[in-house]
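Appendix B. Worked example

We walk through a single record from start to finish. Start with the input: the chain for Transcriptional regulator, Methylobacterium indicum, length 298.
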Amino acid sequence: MPRSLPPLNALRAFEAAARRGSFKEAAGELGVTQGAVGQHVRVLEGWLGAPLFTRHNRRIVPTDAARSYLAGIGPALDRIAAATERFGQDDRAVLRVSAPATFALRWLVPRLARFRAEHPGVEVRLETSNASPEALGDPFDVIIRGGPDTFYGFRAAPFLAEERLPVCSPVLMDRIPLRRCEDLARHTLLHTLSLPRLWADWLARAGRAGLDPAATVVLDHFYLTLQAALDGLGVAMGPTALVADDLARGRLVAPFAGPALPARSYCTYLPEERANDPLALAFRAWLEREGDVGVRLG
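Next comes the structure step. The output line below is what the pipeline stores for this chain.
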């Protein structure tokens, strides 16, 4: 039997108007005139043989029958939209990755072209987050966080070691030389709001606890702190993994050979149901190869 379906444009206009409670707002969402929305709704009312809205002040309110109808067609329209978006992409492998923003910006994204070159048929969908793997609402194939930690339902594997050392731009060091730890008293020390003790811990380890710098600047994200160091604003506590490229290219310098503060490694966390997935394992193996290279500062 043929399907008995009303016009799609009439359904879209009704769904948008019912959801927003306004022909005007529905028109804005659909990119048509308010009159066009009203005309489509009238077509649907004629097709169904019943009114769909009543007016209350300046808002439109779906009738009880219309609300029931909306509950049925809304999800159907969502499925049509999703199927349309997926059309022609079913043969493309998708890898969903979650990583912290600073790590993604300074380490992962600059290297992703190499993974794409090895796996040209893979579409990497990267989202940034610091939430624990257990707290993520969306399913991911590979989650990158510090560790190794134990999370129920996930398998952890370290791939990139890290320490923390003072770093600054070579221009700043030429302007205000840094030969000994005591020279930090002439500099601005850059702090990150979420890591307030980095400088205090490093200075204590260097035997200079209580050193009073010329100034301090506190930034709310670690990537801002590193960018401030690159721009010559001051001296930052640089994570070796995330500044290795800048050190190698001379954009940053590490004025002191040590001491280095220990830091957590970067790890992959694979959900148990993806633990044997060939694509997730290939990405993890690639990260391990890149990480082995990335920890060497030369």
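Two observations about the output. The chain has three domains: 8-86, 93-162+264-294, 163-262. Residues 8-86 form a domain with the Arc Repressor Mutant, subunit A fold (CATH 1.10.10.10).
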